[in-house]
Amino acid sequence: MSAGERAVAAARGAIGARFRVQGRDPAFGLDCVGLAGLAARAAGFEGEIPSGYALRGGDAVVLAAAFSAAGLVASDVPAPGDLALFLTGPGQFHLAVLVPGGIVHADAMLRRVVERPGVPPWPVLGCWRVEG
Q: Most buried of 87, 94, 97, 107 (most Cβ within 10 A)?
């Protein structure tokens, strides 16, 4: 199984987990960074998963640099298993895991991790993957 396939399986395995700000464990809840970290770990990522962050009022360039500095590889051709960074509002960002036919993400409004089919409604700022 490839790194991308492992990331997709982990993300889909978390579907139904409740939403929790700064959540890192599907048993207790996940936010978008926690879900992305779970998928990245399953793909073989051994770097640090950020904590103490704010996805509002940030800078996309700084976020992108942080992903690359953490050891994730920027992807020009998005593929299942990639971590996608979206701009969901002015100065507001959201992470999701690309899966065949859509995304898996921690939906704050639905209060759980869900799979959303089709093209996401937000602009994609970049995608990163775990090489392996």
A: 97
Q: How many CA atoms lie within 13 A of 72 on its CB side?
A: 29
| Tens digit of each residue's pLDDT (9 = 90 or more) over 43-79 | 999 887 766 566 566 677 777 777 887 888 999 899 9
Whole-angstrom distance, CA of residue 45 vs CA of residue 47: 6
- Which residue in the block uniquely carries the two structure tokens 């993300």? 11
Contact present, 129 and 97 (Cβ < 8 Å) = no
Compute the distance between CA of residue 44 and CA of residue 127 in angstroms, rounded to an integer. Answer: 17
Cα-based distances in Å from 116 to 45, 74, 106? 24, 23, 10
Nearest-angstrom CA–CA distance, 102 and 122: 12
The Cβ of residue 123 has, within 10 Å, a number of other Cβ atoms equal to 9
